[in-house]
Amino acid sequence: MAVDPLIEMRDVNKHYGKLHVLKDINLTVGRGEVVVVIGPSGSGKSTLCRAINRLEPVESGTILLDGHPLPDEGRELAKLRAEVGMVFQSFNLFAHKTVLANVSLAPVKVRKRSREEADRRSRELLERVGLLAHADKYPAQLSGGQQQRVAIARALAMEPKALLFDEPTSALDPEMINEVLEVMQQLARDGMTMVVVTHEMGFARSAANRVVFMADGRIVEDRAPEEFFTAPRSERAKDFLSKIL
Ligand code: ADP
Ligand code: MG
């Protein structure tokens, strides 16, 4: 299916104490693919996301980024990790830095870009997420939806090969959800490789190449959105969809 794999998880397992939270996870995300991960609360979606860039160590299995196995630690891990951006439910912007400084910080510190180059590129990214006019404001002066769009620009500033989103709109007021989803839709159209944990089924239907349904730490279904939504195979997925749709 995925001819050019960018993210590969092979037989990945993880426990928290006695809780088996990732069970024999096999997942391949192709370059340019958008994979939406859905499932009940506690099914392991966040842990899966965090495992992809080793924010969570795993006990067994292999995770490859662009063909390179993720090591457990060290400089090589830091390098590979920087190639996968993450956007969380809570935006985690630096409150005492301007919007522009939030976006250009990591490129200067980690990628060793010059201040001028980083600022120029950050302005381009802020324009892309519709926030150039707010470059000199502080996060608290922005709405939640705007802050999340800054967080997306900040992740893009590292020029990642892939972006992971963990419920990026769950903390937002309803009227702000669409402005964030629209930015994500545009990224998808531009060919960004994305793994998106979300309850936004409209986004899944319109932007995802595949839907991965998780339950109890397992990937239960991994299929095209139209197939999944119209004819889920598992009882778990049928039950889940009947509750949210
Ligand atoms: P989801 O994102 O699908 O809601 P999570 O990946 O956050 O699921 O959590 C999966 C399971 O692991 C849940 O039962 C949760 O309570 C548990 N869990 C998550 N993080 C930790 C942790 N740091 N320590 C112990 N248990 C955890
Ligand atoms: Mg979660």
UniProtKB/TrEMBL annotation:
Q: What is its main location?
A: membrane
Gene Ontology cellular component list? plasma membrane
Which intervals hold domain ABC transporter?
A: 7-241
Compartment(s) of residence: Cell membrane
Keyword set, alphabetical order: Amino-acid transport, ATP-binding, Cell membrane, Membrane, Nucleotide-binding, Transport
| UniProt catalytic activity | a polar amino acid(out) + ATP + H2O = a polar amino acid(in) + ADP + phosphate + H(+)
User: Which Gene Ontology molecular function entries are recorded, alphabetically?
Assistant: ATP binding; ATP hydrolysis activity; ATPase-coupled polar amino acid-transporter activity
- Name the Enzyme Commission number(s) assigned to this protein: 7.4.2.1
Membrane association type = Peripheral membrane protein
Does the record's keyword annotation contain Transcription? no
Known CDD domains for this protein? ABC_HisP_GlnQ (cd03262)
Q: Which residues form a coiled coil?
A: none
Q: Which family does it belong to?
A: Belongs to the ABC transporter superfamily.
Official protein name in the record: ABC-type polar-amino-acid transporter
Query: Which taxonomic lineage does the organism of this UniProt entry have?
Result: Bacteria, Bacillati, Actinomycetota, Actinomycetes, Kitasatosporales
